[in-house]
Amino acid sequence: MPDEHPRVAVIGAGIGGLTVAGALTARGFPVQVYEQASAFSRIGAGIQQSANAVKVLRELGLEPTLRARGFVPASFVHRAAGTGEVTNDIPLGARAEGRYGAPYLALHRGDLHDVLLAAVPAGAIHRGRRLVGLEQPGDGVELAFADGSRARADVVVGADGVHSLVRETLFGPHELRFSGKAGYRATLPASALGGERLDDNTKWWGPDRHLIVYYLTAARDEVYAMGTVPEPDFDLESWSAKGDVDVFCAAFADFHPTVRTLLGSVPLVHKWALADRDPLPRWSDGDVVVMGDAAHPMMPHMGQGAAMAVEDAAVLVRCLEAAAGDWSGALRRFEETRRARTSEMQAISAGNSFARTGKDAVDFVYGYDAWTTPLAGAPAPTTTSTPGGNDR
Ligand SMILES: Cc1cc2nc3c(=O)[nH]c(=O)nc-3n(C[C@H](O)[C@H](O)[C@H](O)COP(=O)(O)OP(=O)(O)OC[C@H]3O[C@@H](n4cnc5c(N)ncnc54)[C@H](O)[C@@H]3O)c2cc1C
Fold first, then answer.
1. Which atom of ligand 1 sits closest to the CA of residue 160?
2. Does the record carry S-adenosyl-L-methionine as a key word (predicted)?
3. Which positions ≥6 away from 356 have C-beta within 8 Å?
């Protein structure tokens, strides 16, 4: 009979891996995290963490630091590319906090990662350890790393991102589906805008492209712009690949003057080929499971990819806590609890129409609470604490 708490190995110290490791640590599970990178760098990118994600991170004690490092937009404005006409304006700030039970935050991706690192004991994070193989000989899981080292665990969580080796080992190759769109990302000091006034958080909608712009800090001194542009021949999926600033600006030349002023101030741009996959039929095999982008990569258009990884973390920990020694059963319960929601997010994200107009409901996204959503096989609660929360 295994111990009450299995020894858990998490592969990948990204957003999902650190969140699940932090949540496991907080609940007394012995956990080790293995990350291929030898150091973490502050990649130029913003990230939005909506209330559904912040509710998870709050339980790890991270909310005060996240608020201090990030920005709480008052609303999320959707505008027509050329005229700037407002097509939707979603209240955020205190109004969203009251409605969903947690703030909606925008912050630098590097700052989010930094805050998450603090939730895991430093000695439990092993950098420079690239997983190259895993086996389940019948008693636990054996891990092999590129540096020749090995490790054992009772449960292995593959939080190793879109190119997951854990997923490939369990289920074989599963090609990425490139969208034919490139994502251009830039961060810049607000002072570079020469006094141009921006909304707190905007999505500018063109016919075949869009631009998302928001502040990254409470002081509004750093701005993030992420533009999606058709580029059918581009398929380099990398955080560090650079783009051409002139090409980025030209792609939005017929957008509103505010956009042109903003892009005209961009010093450097990175570029990413946007890709996703169809939902996987299974996420676990025996005592090994995948989560986050390893399980359900999606287009970034709803800003929910990392939020889904963060939600996964809470549900996975709850399933392990309730497992009574049946770890593989807990992993199956986890995937059964999560698959419908993440598949829906993958589909909506691929369609790229979410919240463009006020007709779209957003409550079911932001109102979800991963700490209270019913686990598969458990009776549904009679009430929900937040609007639209956990109802689909
Ligand atoms: C342009 C863009 C904008 C986005 N904006 C948002 C947003 O605003 N809000 C949001 O919620 N989401 C957003 N996303 C999605 C979000 O970035 C991802 O969904 C999220 O990073 C997934 O987290 P993860 O932990 O699953 O994977 P990752 O964060 O990719 O982490 C995987 C980790 O595993 C490590 N690893 C990989 N292979 C191995 C191995 N073999 N051995 C050891 N370690 C390994 C990697 O080095 C990495 O550290 C955006 C995505 C893009 C591309």
1. 34
2. no
3. 78, 87, 88, 203, 205
How far apart, in whole angstroms, are the C-alpha atoms of residue 349 and residue 354?
7
pLDDT of 361 reads: 82
Provide the pLDDT for residue 383: 53
Considering the four listed CATH numbers 3.30.450.20, 3.30.1380.10, 3.30.1490.20, 3.50.50.60, the one that applies to the domain covering 8-71+109-174+279-366 is 3.50.50.60
pLDDT at 358: 83
**Distance spanning both ends of the chain, measured CA to CA:** 36
Q: Is 212 in the pocket of ligand 1 (CB under 6 A)?
A: no
* Strands 210-215 vs 288-290: parallel, antiparallel or unpaired: unpaired
Class of domain 177-276: alpha beta
Active site residues: 214
Between CA 117 and CA 129 the distance in angstroms is: 17
Q: What is the pLDDT of residue 392?
A: 57
- 160 in contact with ligand 1, CB cutoff 6 A: yes
Ranges of residues in the chain with a pLDDT under 50 are 1-2
Q: What confidence score (pLDDT) does residue 382 get?
A: 57
